[in-house]
Design a protein that fits this description.
This protein is 73% helix and 3% strand. It is mainly α. The chain has one domain. It has a two-stranded antiparallel sheet. Strand 1 and strand 2 form a beta hairpin. Helix 1 packs parallel to helix 3 and helix 4 runs parallel beside helix 7. The longest helix is centred in the C-terminal third of the chain and has 37 residues. It is elongated and about 85 Å long.
């Protein structure tokens, strides 16, 4: 395999790096905020070097005008960001599930900075997000991310007009699916919260002299942790299936 240092090669390398670099910076696991910018940049450069001989034939000649060159670069960045953000939105299911679990177990005010999102969120949601990033690498699902990078050239040919309407519809479906899956993952905790609060209300009516919140809050947190311990494996397995199915939408 030989790669020349011609202007055409430099042009193709720039476009491939624009697409893959933007995808890596937005994707989950590979583009997490806990990973330094230098590591993410080096990963993008290495992936570009590997992908260049494979996808170079999809690009045409160098545009003759500056506007054409800018249009080509912006188009590649847009495609990369759409795929990367779509993949990241799949992880929003755990954010929704973690937030609902925190509310139902009395841990809604226990918040910290989520390293994977860079924002403050419930402690349970941060834990599930970090566990999800670990599980993606452990189960080799990050290979699907690299496959999506390669097959993106089959779905979105360089130089063609971007299907903006399809992008918007796809993003809406992914966001809606994230909320749906998040609520499904947290459904046992919703049932637990309803039963616990109902029992708490009955107990307060039967024994008004008991300081019900003083007794119920530790019990709520303790039972919530026990339920999370019992359901953590099914939750993560269900999430990994949801993640793999979502990424496979970009693989042909």
């Amino acid at each position: 395999m030989t790669i020349g240092l011609s202007p055409e090669t430099a042009f193709v390398f720039m476009l491939v790096f624009a697409r893959l670099g933007s995808m890596i910076s937005a994707m989950p696991a590979l583009g997490e905020a806990v990973i330094s910018a230098q590591v993410r940049l080096a990963t993008a450069l290495l992936v570009t070097l590997v992908m260049l001989p494979v996808v170079a034939e999809n690009y045409g000649a160098i545009p003759s005008s500056l506007s054409g060159l800018a249009f080509a670069v912006m188009g590649e960045i847009a495609v990369g960001l759409v795929i990367g953000v779509s993949a990241r939105m799949l992880t929003a299911a755990l954010q929704v599930a973690g937030t609902v679990i925190a509310f139902q177990t009395g841990l809604a005010f226990a918040q910290n900075v989520d390293p994977t999102q860079g924002v403050q969120s419930a402690l349970v949601a941060s834990f599930l997000s970090m566990l999800a990033a670990t599980m993606v690498f452990t189960t080799d699902l990050h290979h699907l991310l690299f496959a999506a990078m390669r097959d993106s050239y089959l779905m979105f040919k360089p130089g063609q007009m971007l299907p903006v309407g399809d992008f918007a519809q796809m993003m809406a479906g992914i966001v809606g699916g994230a909320f749906k899956v998040g609520l499904q993952l947290a459904a046992p905790f919703v049932v637990f919260g309803l039963i616990f609060n109902l029992g708490q209300g009955v107990l307060s009516r039967l024994m008004p002299q008991v300081q019900i919140f003083f007794v119920s809050m530790p019990a709520n947190i303790y039972l919530g942790f026990v339920l999370l311990m019992l359901l953590l494996t099914p939750i993560m397995m269900w999430y990994l299936d949801h993640f793999s199915m979502g990424i496979k939408e970009f693989i042909r």
